[in-house]
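Supplementary Text 2. Reproducibility record for the structural model of the 113-residue chain.

All settings were left at their defaults, and a single model was retained for analysis rather than an ensemble. We include the record here because the model underlies the residue-level annotations in Supplementary Table 4.
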Amino acid sequence: MFDLLELVGWPPSLLTGGLVLLFSLAYGTQARTKLRPMLLAAQVGIICLVSNALIESIMADKIWPSDLIKALLSQTFGTLFGLTIIGWLIIRFCFIIRFRNAQTNIFTRNRGS
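Retained model, structure tokens:
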């Protein structure tokens, strides 16, 4: 069970979790209702994966372009998948909170009756 969680990059590091939360909230609060949350979550996952790889490479004093490319290519698909799922859950939660009263007109009178 724990090997499966480790395959998808769970638990994320504090830096990665913060990046996913920050980018997901930014995308979730600014997106229109017609945008698909899974596409937004994929963007969040890719941005977080790339930025996390670059930050970890820089923190390890490997700032040569070949080292940065090696750090990017060493990221796994499972980690991308895990970050995308976490981002999707946060974005869906933002959509639920933002659009719960989207169809009601609370400042107009009911003119139907």
